[in-house]
Amino acid sequence: MVKEYSPVKSAITSSQVAGELYRASGIARQLSLAAKNSQAVVHRAGSKVAGLKVISEYFADLALKTIKLAEEINRISLDISHMAVERWRQNTLVGHLFDSQEKNENEKVDQIIHVTKRKQLDINNRFNIEIRSLESQLEEIQQYMQASRVVAVSFRLEATQTDEYQGILEDMANNIDIFSEKIKQHVLDAKSHIDRLLMSNI
Amino acid sequence: MEAKLLFDDKHQWYVFARDPDKPDKIIDTNQYMVVSGKESLVLDPGGIEIFSSMLSTILKFIPIEQVTHLFASHQDPDIISSLGMWDQVIPHAKLYTPGLWEGFIRHFGCENIEFCGIEDGGGELKIGETVLQFIPAHYLHSSANFHVYDPVAKILFSGDIGAALEPQDSSLFIENFDTHCDKMRFFHQRWMPSNEAKAHWLNRVRKLDIEMMLPQHGRIFRGKEVGQFMDWFEALNVGIALDNS
Ligand SMILES: [Fe+2]
Ligand SMILES: [Fe+2]
User: The whole model's pTM is what?
Assistant: First the structure.
């Protein structure tokens, strides 16, 4: 038997996840701006910070990927919340149909119950699959944030080897840290919303 | 669903509108939200078809526990047919709506949410630190109907008054008042039943200091457009179905 989570809780959870990822993608855009700035600095500094060229390109790429993924998760969680509401409406309908059957057994109504229950099953399966894939995408974005922390470390290291750009590079490293940490926090919150749903009973 | 901050000081006003996931044949609606401290009021939360978009859009800005109050200007399905769903996601909330409509609105499902009927004369509601006023707008179009005025933000939420029928992707704000009138005319002439009620309302709201007027359909009025609307509405003959039938 496939597990069925409360449609009310499912609708709330997916909306909460969408909200977290909406905020995360806003920060990801700031992260991407930081990445562009770092590329500009590296460009200006030229051969003095040669080691940074590769890492700043990697960083810019990572920031773009983060925006895309955050927006993607936001979109998927919106789909999931539509699905949850649809399931909720079907559940309500089936409840009413059963009540009607109790008062006056009717073959046609029985058929409708049958069809609706099949739809319910189908949408429930889809919901369960989608919510799992949401989890793995959240996982992925967390890994991006780990990688971004590594970028910050490289910036700091490189900063110690230049005089002129030391301040700028250190600032950047700090920015990257702050943005990555914020995004990570939203992702963690999103995950804990999902965990709470998955651990709940109807 | 598009979301925009309309007023941002000690408290905030948001508009939620132009939901791309809305089925085509249902009328497009504007929803609004006032946030003050840890409380908030959702104005005309909308139909059941846009419920999931509304829920997820609201949660972009505040956690669910802070959705404490709902307001329904009147009983129409585009205003409040989502009530049965809100009733389960925010069971501790309160619904402010014309008391006259209680027996009707409860058909949408209201088992948990506290039903707070507004009396015909209007009243006040405190959301966080913000005091909002319920302005009577009876028979425009609904027989028991309220608008919401915020004297600090100088905002009037005007329900179906000021509504326009427009395509889904139109702007939230009026760009040209004169051309906009064409999109409002039929709506007001046909849905608004009474010239007397209209005069009553105009007399009342002209005394208010309004910088923004927010209708439940169509576009937002800003600055001098508010006065322009009132003059236009005053001159308009409403209740036209009687002449046409
Ligand atoms: Fe209406
Ligand atoms: Fe309406």
Answer: 0.87
